[in-house]
Structures are given as C-alpha cells and as structure tokens.
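Open question from group meeting: does this chain pack into something compact, or does most of it stay loose? Before anyone orders reagents, we agreed to write out a predicted structure and look at it together. Recording both the input and the output here so the notebook holds the full record.
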Amino acid sequence: MFTVFVATRDKKDVEQTIQPADDTELNSTDGGEATRDSSIAEVLEIANASLENMAQSLHDYTATFVKQDCDKSGTLNEPSKMQVKIQTRMRNETNDAPKRIYLKFLAPEATAGREVIWGADLYDGNLQVHDTSILLSWKTLSLPPEGMLAMQGQRFPIYEIGLVRLVEQLIERGTADANNPDVSVTITRGHMVDDLETELIRVKRPKPSEREDDFSLAEVIYDPERLLIISYRSFGWPENGSDELPLLESYEYQDLKTNVGLTDSDFDVENESYAYP
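Structure tokens returned:
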C-alpha cells in the first residue's frame, strides 16, 4: 500500500476513475454471477484461510500493482502503476524471513521509470531510489522508509505493501466490525476480473462509524482457486449533496505470478537489467 514520491493534486482536481461495482449488474444472474448475503464472520474466515495458505506456500511473486489512495491529509493521489517483485517473510519455516521489495514505476508519466528497492536486511533498511528526472538520474538516493521524503503524500510506508499485509489489515479491520449490527455483507460469485473468475465481497455501512478507517463501502476481490485476496478498495461518504462515493483507497494486483523463484539479484542495485547508476 505504498508508492514513493508520487505528486498529489487537490482532491477536487483529480478525476476519480475508480467506481464501485454496479448493484443492478451484481444482482442479475444473466452473466453467471450470483450474489448472496454474507457476514463479517465469513469474510474473516476467508481472510484467515488466505493468510494460512500464504504462510504455508507463498514465498515470492511478481505483479503489476495499481494503486490510488488518499494521503494523511485526505488528498487523493494520482493513480499509479508499477511492476513489483516481492519476497515474502513466509519463505522460511518460521515465517520471519526478511521481506524484500522491488518496484519499477510505469505511471503516471512524471514517475515512469523510477526504481525502488527495499529489504528488511538490505542497505541498512533504507530505500534505494533511482529517479529518472534530469536532476536525479545520475545518482541513487538512500532514504529511510519512514522519513519525510519517502512518506511525502503517502498513506503507508513501503513495508506495508504486498498481499500478506493486505490480508492482515483486512483481518484487523474486520475484527473491529465483527459485532457491528450496522454492517452488511454480500458475496458475488462468478465475478470476472479480466479473464479471472473471482468472488466480489462488498461490505456496506449505512452511517459513519467515526473510526479512522471509516468507509461507506468496501470491495474485496478474492481468487478462490489460489485462496488469495488480490484487490481492495474503499469509498467514503457522499459530499455536498452528491450521490457519488469518493474513493479513499484502491490496491489491485494484476497479472499475479506466484513462487517464480526470485533471488538476491532481484533486490540488488547492481542488477544489470535495472537502470541504477
């Protein structure tokens, strides 16, 4: 749930390209989808099963990570897209291996080509950032992940990125709502994402909860074949009499390939396939 140095614009100037799923389409079975009522308890069962599956078998993966979220001030960042390589902490018997991340930015244009490497056991825990701007393309920046520059416009530091932390955060939020009678849940099976058949989990609140992570609607995309949650997005409350739900955060892992055999070189600034100076 992270990008480095992404420029932000005022919320009213950002075109919201991400919209909630259409209720009328989900309630129709013409396209093979079937929606049923569910519960937070069932969502927690799914999330915990996904976490257990990852603990047993998810060593590493590559994906295209598409992200858009609000920073700490409530400003909606531009959508960003990046190639990611991640070694999870689940790749040893005790599930405490050092996590490692490589990012290469594809969009927006202002950040395209930027590379970032971080590892819990690498470079003294600092980000290794290679920017493509004229002023910075000739050097590698070493930045603390929670420092002012790395966190500028960000909601979370880099180590919060990834499938494992996504599920862990969903479990934390779901547990807080476990006994909330104001929360309703539906699950739609046969929901197509590109060529992948998934389940769409929708969690709704009829009124604000006044919690920091409050939302009116959250949507989770679950891949039942691989037992992986591959997308999460949440929306706030309508503003100024509008019916539109403002986007709060959206994280999606596309073209996900698991256990591809990433090695130390994938997280090395000396890797000849990277553009680090």
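Observations to bring back to the group:
Helices lie at 23-26, 40-57, 148-151, 163-176.
DSSP finds four helices and twelve strands in the chain.
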